Amino acid sequence: MSREDSRLALEWHTWLAENLALGVSAEDAQRVLVDAGVEASLAQREIATAQAHPYVVAARRIGRRYEWLEALADLYAELHRQSGAVTLEKRRGVSPEEFFTRYYFGHRPVVLQGFMEDWPAMRRWSLADFRERFGDVEVEIMSGRDANPDHASQPDKHRQVVKLRDYVQRVETGGESNDFYMVPRNENWKRDGLARLREDIRAPAGIIDPELRPDMTTLLLGPPGTVTPLHHDNMNVLLGQVMGRKHVRLVPSFQRHLVYPRHGTFSSVDAASPDAARFPLYGEATVLEGVVEPGELLFLPVGWWHWVRALDVSATVTFHHFQLPGGNTHLRTPQ
């Protein structure tokens, strides 16, 4: 904006109202406007007008409630740190009772060991096995991901139907790549042609509903290098790693204000290489990190932010129907 302009552009009105509502001081707001080319006297008038406007007054009251909730979230974060839960736990021999009490209801992630030893998938699954048993089955994948930084939040732009043998060949020969991936949104687990594949897994006893209908699980399959960007799910998820390893980074749900949310459930931050200049608050987040090995289950509590990168050719099964009287706990998403 030039200094000769006598009125603020609409986007600056919106910016001013939002930032005053969030508690930015008049002095700081004026400094930003002047640095953007707004004449100082105009900036002062617009700030004074905005501060007196009933809409901004009401928004400021809401902003104070937001500040209180943010302070409460920071308190949870401090208690979390004081509890010593600053690493991604790996546990063997966890009973269902302890799992639900300590992790599910405790809202804490954990890697569980020893629950997948009876899975035929652990002995049988390989790319060669998929090609031999299910090569003619048509599956949906997400393709062309590298060309679109927002591919994860725009799935309909990337859907492609292929024969499983053709997809397996791409995984075998494509090397490290994030350009193509079979993800839960593809819903291939429901395809009748993969019914025998579903028979190769078992519900973790006492934790997951043993019925295991096709709509209760999902399948992920892809090459090394596939990345799921930092995001959260609106329900609890148990991730079973069958083939390959996955590097994970997790941020607590109560640190949402530190991860710069966008598109509802996604973060603006590249968790693989955070930009401290653009996203300074992310540096205050508690980041749990670890590698999930074949035969391990990763519990992702509802609302926890997670970033995942496959280190090898990877096959993963996810569960979301827990063996509870009330079923899975969901996060209510504001409209």
Automatic annotation (TrEMBL):
Protein source organism: Myxococcus xanthus (strain DK1622)
Domain of life: Bacteria
Occurrences of domain JmjC (ranges): 192-335
Name of one Pfam family that matches: Cupin_8
Entries under InterPro entries matching the protein: Cupin_8, JmjC_dom
Transmembrane segments: none
Phylogenetic placement of the source organism: Bacteria, Pseudomonadati, Myxococcota, Myxococcia, Myxococcales
Gene3D superfamilies documented for this protein: Cupin (2.60.120.650)
Name of the featured protein: JmjC domain protein
